[in-house]
Each structure stands twice: as structure tokens, then as C-alpha cells.
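Open question from group meeting: does this chain pack into something compact, or does most of it stay loose? Before anyone orders reagents, we agreed to write out a predicted structure and look at it together. Recording both the input and the output here so the notebook holds the full record.
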Amino acid sequence: MKNYVIVTDSTADLPDNIIEEYNLTVIPLSYSFENEADNHDKQLGIKEFYERIKNGERATTTLINSKTFEDCFASLIEEGNDILYFGFSSELSGTYGSSQIAREEVLEKYKDARIECIDTLAASLGEGLLVYYAAKMKQEGKSLDEVIQWVSDNKLHLCHWFTVDDLNHLKRGGRINAMTATIGTALGVKPILHVDNGGHLVPVTNVRGRKKSIQALVERMEATCTNPEGQSVFITHADCLEDAEYLSNLIKEKFNIKEVVINYIGPVIGSHTGQGALALFFLGTER
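C-alpha cells returned:
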């Protein structure tokens, strides 16, 4: 069986130890603060990034262009590999579209190569959790086709539940209007959002207070989670580690979870969520 390499974006927010253990190729997106040059995800310390966001600086983000994908794909093919690429939701970024353009260009030159691009319709460690399961299957000796089939069967069972602490970032992103943000902030309202089957980030409901918003994430998991004792659960946070650990402890108390992985929301997604965002990812009956 020909070797294949799993490639993804930095928006998957995977911890370095998982990237290294499974020999994943991660292509960075970039972001920039006003009047500054672009940074890749790892160039600025994550604590410094969120401190600047918390102090009111705004960051803009840039997708991965097709030339970057072409260079990456061609290099891996020249080493004798096929490629399985997992992309950030096409409804949240144009990055997946860039990968498709690059795929066609590279296959024109390398006729016998195989490049499979998957639109995960996922974000952050939701995307990362799909990559993680795929990488584990590859390590177990599963073929490229077997991994693709599993992902096709399961990606719409990959549940994403988010809450944010700063409504102003949702206002800037067009998710809520200015009046809702102002009133919600005054009342301590915290939105609960998820990524739907189409890969969109969608507000679902609102609760009062941070603790209740975290408990609401657990309730969403309780409603749809399948076989919790046999799966890994991922949590991401935008520089609110104590809240992430509180969420993790609630989950461990309620479910017999095999593994909980906690990591930062990287700067690219964090540019849109703001400091204090918290997200939970698991497999369930439906998104």
C-alpha cells in the first residue's frame, strides 16, 4: 500500500504533541494587527496575542493561497506520498477552495499522484478531532480509502459547541447587531453557538452568566453524545484555561470519558472569537 500523508490547516488548533506523534503536515494561515506585517500562527506568543486582543487591538486574517498548497503538495508527492488534506470549513474560509485549485494544478504535472481534499465543514479542534481520528486510523494501518470512508460517515456527527465571553467580537463579525451586543453585555448574556451541517457558525441560544454557559455546553453533550467512554473529547479556549479545566472536570464527572484534550484556540480563529471563547468537541448522534 502506497504511503499517504495527512495534511491540515493551523485552524485545526491541534496540540504540538499530536502533530509530532502522528507526523502531520500543518499549513499555517496568517493574521495581522493593524499596520503590522502578517504573522503565522506560531510567530507571536499566544498569551501576548490574546493580551493585545483583550486590550482592544483588532486582527485580520488571511487564507492559505493556492500557490502555498501547490508547493506543499508537490513536495510531498516528490517524496513518494499520496495526500489526504483536511480543510477548514468552506463556509468559514476560502482556504478549502484554494486547496482544490492547487490539487488540479499539481495533478496536471504528477499524473499518477493521488490528492484527496476533504471539506471538514468544521472549525478549530472540531477540524482537529477529525484529523486526530484519521491519523490514529492511519497509524493502525488503515488505507487511504478506509480513512476517507470513515470521515465521510462521521464528519456530520462531529459536534461543535461554543460560548464566547465578549459579544463585541460577534458584533464585528456580523453575528449579532450592535444593540444586542450592548444589551447582552449589560445583562451578562452569553451566547451558545454551534457549527451546523453546512459548516456555518450559528447562534443557538443565550444564557445568563459564564458558569451557566459552560454548564450549557455539558448539557448539549449529554443530549447527543454517543459512546462517551469510547471516544476522545477535545476542548479549546481563548486564553481562559481555568474555564476549560472546569468544563473538562464537569465532563469527567458526568461521563466515563477515555481522553480529554485541551488546547488554545489559535490566533486565526481567536481573531474572530475574541479572548474568553470556549469550545467543546465530541462525536454525537447529530451536529
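Observations to bring back to the group:
The mean pLDDT is 91.
The two ends are 34 Å apart (CA to CA).
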